[in-house]
Amino acid sequence: MTNHLFGTWQNQSLEGIFAECRELAENADFPTVKRWRENGGKVLGHFQVYFPEEIAHAAGMLPLKMRGAPVEPTHSDSRFGSYLCSILKTSLELVLSNRVELDMFVTHPICDAARNLAAVWGRNYSYPCQILYLPQNANSKASAEYLRGEYERVKGDVEAVTGSKVTDEALRNSLIVYNENRRLLRQLYEIKRKQPWLVTGFEAYLLMTVGGMILREEHNELLKTAIPLIEARPAKRQDKIRVVFEGGFCEQPPLDLIRAISQSCYIVDDDLLIGLRWILEDIPLEGDLLMNMADAYLEKSSYSPVQHDARKPKEKMLLQRIADSGAEAAIITAAKMCEPGLEDQVTYTKALDEKGIPYFVGEFEENMTSFDSMEIQLETFTENLIFS
Amino acid sequence: MTETIQDELVGRGNKEGADLFREWFDGLAEHAKRGEGAAYVFVMGSMAELLHVFDFPLVLPEITSLQTAVRRVADKYLAEAEDYGYSPDICGYVKADMAVQLRGGDHPMGRIPKPAIAVMTNACNTYIKWAEIWERMYGTPLFVIDVPATRQAGGQFQPGSADFERDRKYVEAQIRELIPLCEEVSGKKFDIDRLRETLKYANDMNTGWKRVLELNKSKPSLFNAVTDGTVYLGVSNNLRGTEKGSTFFKNLVEEMEYKSAHGIGTQIVEKYRLGFVGVPCYPIFRRFSEMFTEWGGNFVHSTYLNFASGGGSMGYEYDVNRPIESLAEGFLISVREAMDNMFHQDRVVISWVKDYDLDGVVYHPIKSCRTVSTGLADGRRAMMAATDVPSLFIESDMMDKRVVSEAQMKNRADAFFEGLASRREMAKISS
């Protein structure tokens, strides 16, 4: 089976690669998934934020990050009430409208809404629809062992879907692929932090976001091609404010909103699609691999509003992210109706107030098409900072 | 003689429940007056059995918050929290409590003590976000008891299986980690015999609660699950693991057994037996209930009584000979049951249609609570596909009057009952 589900990025200039990535990211028909299925491949769809994709990958499945899409929820609207975030509806819409076909669906107890998805999905489909109970007590000594057991359980379910055992060798090979992928993404983010004029936040996002729709082997090839081109770019430093963007851990802002922010600011760090970068270091390839994965999830990981960890108070983590990236300001957003995001907006802004760090607050929805007023407000915000 | 017994028994649960509720608030005010902190806990997995061993007074902020709505002052509390920065789109309970904290504990029922410790489960993610606020405000130590629930519909791990034992051990390990934290905060040593005592009281309450709910299968039903049931639910939460709670439920069973034996129902003539799915509309609590009772509709069961009792409704009995192990097992099973009553409510409601002989089901998703509300529309579709019982779907809120449209709700309820009446007439004609 080919690793190249995307392919059109090959032999392109850097601008051509960005254009191809954008086209794929905006294509709600998920052509890469269709191609995979046409070749007889099976697909595991997993809802945001983090899923140990290595397990599905080692079983020969395509792990697909279900993170909504620019579609109208015409079928899924009748399955939900009124006061919900968009990503929930559009993710289900993708399967109800047959844009995407799955063989297994996994959600997580990340928020009150998302944890309902396994039951909703399961009432509509006969394939396995379940919750991976990622630990919400990250500070218990028993959490890693428990999580290892959860991974073992999911591995068993994946094996039942594919009909083949996930060997240690296959899992090790997948870890090698994913470790490399996370290393490349860290490299990309390092460029954003140190030389943000070489790659805009929007461009970096395009490169990253397609990773959730293709095999990581191909994503690695893509990043290994694009990163040297970025580093060799003859771009000059501009007089732009360096900002951290916060609020993109689950539902994603519209691409044009990220583009608009990138036009007026350097996005030097962010939490966009943080699940792809949740693990901060290589996962060891020796010993009990599932335990290594569980340990990495708990001990070598980033932060987000959907995980409580006494060692990682969110406001301190944000301040650290700002300090580490040399940001001068923060853009604190939340998706509409996102309870954890909206609650932490208050946390973040109070902490920023205390430290005297300027910030811009906004709400978004993945299907917003007009954000003129936000753009104008943001421009005013950045101009005020530049001229103050 | 019989009349005297009837006078004593019928309505006793409501009166005692109201008295105990007032007493609970008064007790909290006394603690606050003395400057003593409390354990802040939540209805879905309060761990009251353990916390009482350390003599913590328990504050249940969901209950203190909903009381601001029942007392029709929630709007002021919500506005204060929103002025502080919280969005109109987050949980109203969180915001009302935030305002109580900003007011130094000031609450319409009396002063609420500050949190000395907060213990929460993952049954609702907002519990954790909520407690993080106290952590920031006061430096309150938080303890999350992570309870792995049903992974897939119908796939609950059963005691005796390796998967269940893995989950149980995880919960037990966390309980053992919570004990030293309680010792540190309270300054009291853990006493396993006291735990045995609170477990015994909790057993009385669990078995009593289960029996009371079963007895409501009687015709006519014995109590209204939305109004009377909420009073009993309050005691099951506020006094969990206490002697008073145990006595209350023993008395309540006695009252309900008597009513059942003598065919004594609620204060209305029961024409329609209804199931309720969701959270009551507290800002117009009485009117909300009247929209149904004035048509002769009585709520005979409610998912709320199952999930908001932390699954106490399933009647789990702890084995006091192995208290911690059994606490872990009961906690896991009960909190999981609470979650199943939210996420897999369709299965619960479908079983009630036969067991409680339902004429209709009312779904009431609310803006404030996505845990309960997200899957209700889809669950209703499943219920309708599996049964021929009519249902009503009305959205509002449990706190925020701004999203409660009373007239519109009443119109919908009226149309629902007109449909039920016409359906009954048609059935008569065709038989």
Write out key terms for the chains shown:
heterodimer; A: 388 residues; alpha/beta; four-stranded parallel sheet; 14 helices; 8 strands; B: 431 residues; 9% strand; globular
What does this structure look like?
The complex is a heterodimer of chains A (388) and B (431). In chain A, 47% of the residues lie in helices and 11% in strands. Chain A is an alpha/beta fold and 388 residues long. In chain A, 56% of the residues are buried. The mean pLDDT of chain B is 97. Chain B starts with a helix and ends with a helix. The longest helix of chain B has 25 residues, at 162-186. Chain B is of the alpha/beta class and 431 residues long. The chains are: A alpha/beta (388), B alpha/beta (431). Chains A and B meet through helix 5, strand 4, helix 6 and helix 13 of A and helix 7, strand 4, helix 8, helix 16 and helix 17 of B.
Short description:
The complex is a heterodimer of chains A (388) and B (431). By secondary structure, chain A is α/β, with parallel strands linked by helices.
Largest interface: A-B, 59 and 57 residues
- The total beta strand count of chain A reads 8
Low-confidence stretches of chain A: none
Strand order of the largest sheet of chain A: 2-1-3-4
Overall pLDDT level of chain B: 97
H/E element string of chain B? HHEHEHHHEHEHHHHEHEHHHEHHEH
Number of strands of chain B: 8
Distance between the termini of chain B: 44 Å
* Span of the ends, CA to CA of chain A: 57 Å
Provide the succession of SSEs of chain A. Answer: HHEHEHEHEHHHHEHEHHEHEH
Radius of gyration of chain A: 20 Å
Share of helical residues of chain A: 40-55%
Outline the low-pLDDT stretches of chain B. Answer: none
Mean pLDDT rating of chain A: 96
* Biggest β-sheet description of chain B: 4 strands, parallel
